[in-house]
Design brief:
Layout lengths: L3 H15 L5 H8 L4 H13 L10 H18 L9 H17 L5 H16 L3 H15 L3 H5 L11 H11 L1
Length: 172
């Protein structure tokens, strides 16, 4: 018997193989799912096959979903077929952040959402998650001085200062 996750994955694969446009209702069901694996399928579609998404979505919708999904991956460290482990999620955050930065100031609100998510995840999490935020995200972002400057407020925050300092040490 095929479980619902397998059925959804098969449906997604059929859309991708046939290069058929993926309906909004299908994407929405994945995005709105409580199941991290279903969200992982949506993530892969947005990341690798955005040209197959059969409706116009805003950059804000995209970033909001990516934040939701990648935050869950950082916190839960899933080990599924479609979800991302903590460190893979961290590298995805770095890639998305850099891509948004290259588009210039028009993405400031999306970049702020990502920084806010990282702040909350870092301050509210275990040492394991904090280590991933530092080693997997900040150290890589801080290699670019212009991005590092966007996190300057971290050095003045009691909770965030250790993360900022450790990431800076790596870059200097």
């Amino acid at each position: 018997m095929i479980n619902s996750e397998s059925r959804v994955a098969i449906t997604a694969a059929k859309y991708i193989e046939s290069r058929e446009m993926i309906p909004k209702s299908f994407i929405k069901s994945l995005v709105d799912s409580e199941d991290i694996e279903m969200q992982g399928i949506a993530y892969r579609i947005f990341d690798q096959f955005p040209f197959l998404i059969g409706y116009k979505y805003t950059k804000s919708e995209y970033v909001d979903f990516m934040i939701l999904f990648l935050r869950r991956c950082l916190l839960e460290n899933p080990d599924g077929d479609f979800s991302e482990s903590r460190y893979i999620a961290a590298h995805s955050i770095v890639s998305i952040y850099r891509a948004l930065t290259k588009d210039g100031p028009k993405n400031n609100s999306e970049l702020a959402k990502i920084r806010d998510m990282l702040k909350k995840v870092y301050c509210d999490s275990s040492e394991d998650v904090k280590t991933v935020v530092i080693n997997g995200v900040l150290e890589h972002l801080f290699l670019e001085i212009s991005i590092r400057m966007e996190f300057e407020d971290w050095k003045h925050d009691k909770c965030l200062r250790p993360a900022y300092s450790q990431a800076i040490e790596y870059c200097t």
